[in-house]
Structure formats: C-alpha cells, structure tokens
C-alpha cells in the first residue's frame, strides 16, 4: 500500500514550521488553528508534546502554555524555540494536577487543554479524570485527539461524567477520524473529541454525544481492530518476552 500524507496539501495564513513534524490530519490542523485563534487562551496545557507540531499552534495563540511529555527529548529540542512554553517531563496523570494548581494559584485563566499523550484506554481515562476533577473558574475547551481509535474512544466513554461539574457538552466526533492510510492500514486513528466546560451553567451534562457513531461503527466492522482488540490480553506477555524487539 502506497504511503500517503493526509496532512497535505494545506493552505492557511498560519505559517507552519516545515521542520517540525505534526501528527495530525488536514482537518485536525485546520480545526486546531481555528479553535485557538478564536479562543485566544490565556493559559493552555498540552499533554503529548512529541516533535512540537500541535505545540506551535498553542504557543502562537496562547499567552502561556504548559506542555507535558513523558520523554525529555521534546523539552531539550524545543525549549529554545517556544519562549512562552513551560515544558514538564513525566507521566501526565502525575503532573497535570500540579500544573492546573500552578495556573490557578496565579489567578490565571486556563482556557484550552489538548490531550494527546498515552493512547491506551486507561491512559486516556486517567488523563480525563484528572482534568475533570478540578472545579474550573473559567470557560475551558478540552480537545482529545484520536477519538476514532477504538481504545482511546473506550477510554473516553468509560469516564463517569455525571461525577463532574460544569460540563456543557461532550462530542466524541467533533472532527471524525479515518483509516490510517500508511503501513498500519485498517487501523483507525485521528479525530477530535470535545468537552466544553462552562462554570456558569446550572446543570452539568453527562450525555456522551457521538455525532458520527454510525460512520464509526461501519468503519470499525471493516477494521483490523475487530481482531486486534480481542488480542489485547496478550500485550503483557509481549512485554514479558520482549517480543517488541
Ligand atoms: C502522538 S504524540 C503527540 C503528537 C503531537 N501532539 C502532535 O500533534 O504532533 C504522543 C506523545 O505523548 C507522549 N506520551 C505518551 N504517554 C505519555 C504520558 N503518560 N504522559 C505524558 N506524555 C506521554 C509520547 O512520548 C509522545 O511524545
């Protein structure tokens, strides 16, 4: 299967740094730029820095950004490039509380969070629960990348949203994803889920909208995940016997 770049061609006033790899599709890139240009956050948080692709947009449209990655390489490579970004190294669920508390202790307005770190079901769930457990004082948009990936989506669906306050809207298919067009063909990736937090609303919503559920289910039936997800129980053994190498 021929490799194909689903992020090109791309036309925007936003000048993307061509040296920085950005792991998102065209639709996601357009969406992220437009969202951030309009929200104009005072503070943003990113989970999953990687090569700095999405970070270049967060950095441009936010006054201040915290970017978290479990790997120290992104910090070492990018800290001189993005002056308004504080890099944090470590597991997101161990760091995110302190970052949010740090912003709140400065009376800062946290208006945007991008979740794009640990893509396992439990990883996504843990990140979301850590975020939602805060009682936010300002409107906040949370975007979760890869809501079209079955494990990420399960993580998003397994959160008990009714436990949390100020949720105005949840949609797992704010931007829908696709089949990965490259060598892992028939794997489902991409997509943006959105969770809007609004401290002014009277009643929090726990309804998980899936505006492209039918598309998701149709694609799922034709995907490799039908088999792959059934074999997930073998993952610990794979690690045990070092079969990844
Ligand atoms: C898909 S990449 C992020 C892509 C980037 N946002 C972009 O748009 O180009 C995922 C990143 O999350 C990091 N990561 C994985 N698990 C993590 C965790 N538990 N905490 C923090 N970062 C994690 C990985 O090291 C990797 O750099």
Question: What is the topology?
Answer:
Elements: H1 26-39, E1 43-47, H2 53-61, E2 64-69, H3 73-78, E3 85-89, H4 92-105, E4 110-115, H5 121-132, E5 140-145, H6 150-157, E6 167-175, E7 178-179, E8 188-189, E9 192-197, H7 213-221, H8 225-228, H9 235-240
Parallel strand pairs: 1-2, 1-4, 2-3, 4-5
Antiparallel strand pairs: 5-9, 6-9, 7-8
Bound molecules: S-adenosylmethionine.
Give an overview of the whole structure.
This protein is α/β, with parallel strands linked by helices. Helix 1 packs parallel to helix 2 (about 55-60), helix 4 runs parallel beside helix 5 and helix 5 (about 120-130) packs parallel to helix 6. The chain has helices at about 25-40, 55-60, 75-80, 90-105, 120-130, 150-155, 215-220, 225-230, 235-240; strands at about 45, 65-70, 85-90, 110-115, 140-145, 165-175, 180, 190, 190-195. It has nine helices and nine strands. The strands form two sheets. Strands 3-2-1-4-5-9-6 form a seven-stranded mixed β-sheet, sandwiched between helices. A two-stranded antiparallel ribbon has the order 7-8. Helix content is about 35%, strand content about 20%. It has a single domain, classed as Rossmann fold, CATH 3.40.50.150. The longest helix is centred in the first third of the chain and has 14 residues, at about 25-40. The structure holds S-adenosylmethionine (SAM).
**Largest sheet at a glance?**
7 strands, mixed
Shape summary: globular
- Please tell me the CATH architecture by its name: 3-Layer(aba) Sandwich
CATH topology type: Rossmann fold
- Number of domains as seen in the coordinates: 1
Percentage of residues in strands:
15-25%
| Full CATH superfamily name | Vaccinia Virus protein VP39
Task: Give the C-level CATH assignment.
Answer: Alpha Beta
Note the total helix count: 9
Biggest sheet: strands side by side, in what order? Answer: 3-2-1-4-5-9-6
Radius of gyration: 18 Å
**SSE string, helices as H and strands as E:** HEHEHEHEHEHEEEEHHH
Low-confidence stretches: none
């Amino acid at each position: 299967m021929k490799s194909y770049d689903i992020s090109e061609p791309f036309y925007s006033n936003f000048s993307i740094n061509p040296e920085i790899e950005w792991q998102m599709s065209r639709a996601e890139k357009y969406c992220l730029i437009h969202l951030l240009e309009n929200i104009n956050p005072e503070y943003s948080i990113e989970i999953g820095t990687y090569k700095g692709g999405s970070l270049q947009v967060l950095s441009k449209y936010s006054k201040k950004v915290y970017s978290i990655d479990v790997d120290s390489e992104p910090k070492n490579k990018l800290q001189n490039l993005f002056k308004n970004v504080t890099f944090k190294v470590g597991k997101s669920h161990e760091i995110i509380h302190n970052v949010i508390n740090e912003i709140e202790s400065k009376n800062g307005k946290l208006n945007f969070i991008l979740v794009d770190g640990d893509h396992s079901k439990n990883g996504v769930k843990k990140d979301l629960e850590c975020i939602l457990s805060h009682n936010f004082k300002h409107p906040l948009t949370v975007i979760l990348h890869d809501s079209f990936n079955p494990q990420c989506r399960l993580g998003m669906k397994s959160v008990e949203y009714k436990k949390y306050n100020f949720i105005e809207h949840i949609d797992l298919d704010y931007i829908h994803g696709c089949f990965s067009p490259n060598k892992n063909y028939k794997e489902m990736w991409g997509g943006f889920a959105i969770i809007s937090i609004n401290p002014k609303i009277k009643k929090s919503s726990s309804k998980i909208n899936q505006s492209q559920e039918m598309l998701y289910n149709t694609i799922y039936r034709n995907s490799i995940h039908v088999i792959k997800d059934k074999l997930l129980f073998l993952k610990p053994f794979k690690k045990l016997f070092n079969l990844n190498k």
